[in-house]
Amino acid sequence: VFVMGAVFGGEHGLFDDAALSGRDAVLLMTTGGPEAAFNPGGAFGPMDDFVFHIRRGMLEFVGYRVLDPVVTYGPARLDAHERDAALRSVHQSFVKIAEDLDRRGARAAHA
After folding, report:
1. Tens-place pLDDT, residues 81-104
2. Three-state SS for 24?
């Protein structure tokens, strides 16, 4: 719950001036449809357009720097092998995020 005056507005401002500025957020999502449904011309359009209001209107609004979403498409339709591969992919995505954050922290410490 983002409370006005606690994380945005009032003393905190909005976006880069909000209380959660300088922190990172990532959307970890699953979809009910296949990846093709979230591409240009697909049923839901590009994923970036699909999550825009969450990304901009919720997370960036309160100051978060929003990382690229980690998406598993149609997990209910995956067989056991595909599900294992999807879980490994999610794990690798978060390993990469952690490594990137560590590198960014190390650069900031040396600046």
Report:
1. 999 999 999 999 999 999 999 998
2. strand
